[in-house]
Amino acid sequence: MKIFNLLLIGSGAREQALAKALTKNTKNNKIINLYNIGSHVNPGIANRINTLPIQNAIEIQIIPYDDLEKIKNFAQEKKIDLAIIGPEQPLELGLADALWEINIPVIGPRKSLAQIETSKGFARDLMKKYEINARPLYQRFACFNQEAEDFLMALNQNYVIKADGLMSGKGVKVFGDHLHSLKDSIQFCQEIDGPFVIEEKLSGPEFSLLSLSDGLTLAHMPAVQDHKRLLENDEGPNTGGMGTYTLANHRLNFLSSNDIQEAQKINEAVMQALQQETGESYQGILYGGFMKTASGIKVIEYNARFGDPEAINLLGLLKTDFLDICLAMINKTLALLNPIEFSQEASVCKYLVPEGYPEMGKKGDVLDLSFLSSKELENLYFSSLIEKSNQFIMQGSRAMAVLSIHPEIAQAEAQVEKIISKIQGNFYHRRDIGKIKKIRKIRKIAILGSTRGSILESFADLIKTQNLPIELSLLITDQADAPILERGHSLNIPSEFLSAKGLSREAYGENLNLKLQEKNIDLIILIGFMRILPSVFIKQWENKIINIHPSLLPKYAGLMDLEVHKAALLNFTQGGDQETGCTAHLVIEEVDAGKILTQKRCPILKTDTPESLKSKVQALEASALVEAVEILIKSTSLKNTMGAI
Ligand code: AMP
Ligand code: GLY
């Protein structure tokens, strides 16, 4: 058993989550002595309600973060092996630099690297210099002046004003939400009384993507959504964060796996840029705050540490031993630990705040926890709260977070609410956080056709009347004068002619593929498409191309249009087929031979002609297509590749 003397800096709920993760010792191969320096004694870190494994020795010291000498002396005296810095202030004050100076390894970046958080202007300039373009327009100002006013005017009420330095998430005001006139805005710029940034206001849902960094490799954590606004429906002033949730698939409903990859790539680029700019190695957590906008993933802000409350969710889900991760970050061996594992469950965390928060949070109100079971107490994470004579007293800022983890987000949310309902006191929390409406994923369909496409209207009609989660997102024809093109236009489907002139089958397939990918198409439907698709294309879209054929396949496979109906009638007159119909099937290389998804039938009558059979069968085709699409949406192969929730 190796003994580790760990120094944890910070006194909030995030640090309690860190203390829990550090002392968990999942491999049971370490003895951990935990030393904690902070602004007050956190009852959770002090293990007053058995939130930590009891075999650990814990000592807490109150030392101001700017007393670097005192912290260094304490660390030397306790023979600290590793320090972990939770909050941003000690990073800004250079505590990481001070501890590295006395050869104590630190999780948390040096002061120069931490500027990515401590100066919003630095962060924007860095992204600009290193051509990381996922950012809004912005300008930095040392104080309010005519240029700042001109920039506000130029952005035409579409702006956000941010104090350049650390403001605990409260130095940002958004036009339309917190600022309602140019006069308000100028006044806020003047109130900041220091440098500030004005930037273009972006819109879209926000998410956090945090990555662990050893200076060489980033290990990305599940995406989290933080709700920074005080009031329900994300209204009211900004706060330090009122609550967070994650989903079991480690994505959020509004994000695709491409979006996640995009955010991960941005974190990687920013880490590289930061290291290049400062010449230092980033060993700690890089926290990207993103927005999914109509023009892609954009950066709202960067933090140089774990988020609070994000850390509570993420460390709660973490399965890999956290101390092993910290040691790998110090030894630059994170790549060897990958993949770092997180439980595939959902998590919800909500903060309880005192009356008057965030402007003037009331100090002194008590939270009565006596109705909670010992199991429920384990879900509590204390922040701006002290314990005195067995009473838990709120100190004005976010007081306590409640976490729950469950395979289903609805259950996790309900458990958090149940625990909160048993807590007595004068506090406020947001009930809406984690109440996720199961949004239906809309599947994007492309139609390929060369002829009339007579069934298009009835297909579009069925989608509408049955309120199916399907969008006809693209129509492509290979014939400039095909009537299906006009049909597509009149149904408001983006429709175009893609010429095959002079192209090989393969080259045409590539062009087609590009068009489909541009539109993020999920499924392809062939309606009278007369061109043979190349095998590469068919592989790329395996199990995702549906063809509709006007016969009960395998009968009359290979025949087309009226030929099929003539053959069916002939067979009927010879005493054979009594019925005909249509088949929706998957497309494979062999013509009309792919797996049958569904068939619709109708009788053949003596009075039928090939033309009358054609129109009877066409009347069945739209509903066959709808059924086939539904079958594919439900099938597991499509679910996996399309990342359904
Ligand atoms: P920050 O402290 O930079 O994360 O900003 C706090 C909050 O202000 C964010 O979570 C957003 O809701 C909002 N915000 C910041 N920057 C922008 C922006 N450029 N466009 C729209 N909203 C923003
Ligand atoms: N949850 C937001 C932050 O930690 O900055």
What do these coordinates show?
With 645 residues, this protein is α/β, with parallel strands linked by helices. The protein folds into four domains: 2-107, Rossmann fold (3-Layer(aba) Sandwich), CATH 3.40.50; 115-136 and 202-344, D-amino Acid Aminotransferase, Chain A, domain 1 (2-Layer Sandwich), CATH 3.30.470; 349-436, Alpha-Beta Complex (Glycinamide Ribonucleotide Synthetase, Chain A, domain 4), CATH 3.90.600.10; 443-642, Rossmann fold, CATH 3.40.50. The protein contains 21 helices and 31 strands. Strands 27-26-25-28-29-30-31 form a seven-stranded mixed sheet. Strands 12, 15, 18, 20, 23 and 24 form a six-stranded antiparallel sheet that branches. β10 and β11 (218-220) form a beta hairpin. α1 (13-23) packs parallel to α10, α5 (111-118) packs across α6 and α15 crosses α20 (610-634). The chain is elongated, with a radius of gyration of 31 Å. The two termini are 43 Å apart. Adenosine monophosphate (AMP) binds next to β7, β8 and β17.
